[in-house]
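Give me a protein, keeping tokens residue-aligned:
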Amino acid sequence: MNSLFRSRWPLLLTGIVAAISFGSWWFFAPRPTRAAAAPPAPQHTTVYDPDPQHLWNRLHDTFRARIEGKETDPWELDPFLWKNEDYLAGEKGQKAALDVLDEFIAKKGHTLVKDPLKRALLQRDLWALFDSLQVPRWAAAQKNPQMELAARVARIIPRLSLTAEEIKKLPDNYAEAAAAKEAWYLPADLWDPKGPWVLLGDDNLTPLALTHIHFFGGRSTFFVFLRLPDGREQTEKYLAALKKGAALDPFPPGTDAALVRRMQLIDAQGKRVTTNVTESLQMRSGPFELKLNRRAFLAGKPSLKAIGEEDLERDALLLMGDNVAQGPSKVRESCFAGCHQGMKDVNGLNSYRRFKPLPLTPTAKPDLLPTTRAEEDARNRAWKGYRYEWGLLQGLVQNGPRD
């Protein structure tokens, strides 16, 4: 050890000890803490009545989805809890749910509102809630807490049903939007069976938009349209060549596609009916998307509204479960970054290419052909008819208490 180091060693040692002492004091010393953040006050809504304490509003609030414990927008298109959201699995959430459902049943809550639009939306939301409940199959369901919720929801759903005539009178909000001057981008001839837009089906007799149908549980009917720039004849020739196994030619510039989601309801006879209410419309040109605006719909105003650049939605819905975050995220950015990158040929249609349910599993491509609304509607509804949750709902309704 040299003389310079020997002369400075006591000073270095003193400094080291001081540093350790200060560090220990800093680490263990008590610090002033921030006041615990108060939980956000519940946003009492007025979706169904101006009184926030109206039974329908309280029911709506009880089942609204939550992101990191915070309630989401009550006016969302799909506001209720979804699969894998654990609020109702907890004791507190389940008690709140049972209380409001029991009150709704005991007080005949379905009689408090007569407006068909409001009844349609509440039944639609409760149907989605029912399908989201994690009720196991067979005997295990008898003792499952989720079955308590399912049994009560199953009692309410038919009470809210509309007659076939009332369902026919629900507004055709697509026609309203197409007729509006500000909706210049909407094709007025989309539903014309002889027009330039060809409604697509699968010759294998399965619904075409399977990814969407599966995620939304078959409670909506999906229609897929294709239009080549020279109109219907050119589009049908393309499909005929594709059916014969011809090489996939690129789509000519100006080709467009559309995906329409229409609301289903359960009518007074217990039948599933596709209504004239368009829940969403996605088009590849633009790009743009329109969605049902609940506030405008319940006010009796034109309700199919374009999604803006800054509009948000929960990731679970936006990416149809294919996500790790809760969101919300920007709708238009996510759609084209996550699913719809381009449409150079028919493989650009996800309904044709189809997502694989699991890695390395085969996915049969559909055999595309022109179809009709009635045929595609029947295929959509048939898919739901084989689902466990639909059978469970029917069983609970038929064998439950009679009102």
User: Anything to note?
Assistant: Residues 1-41 have pLDDT under 50 and may be disordered. The chain has two domains: 55-160, 171-385. Residues 55-160 form one domain.
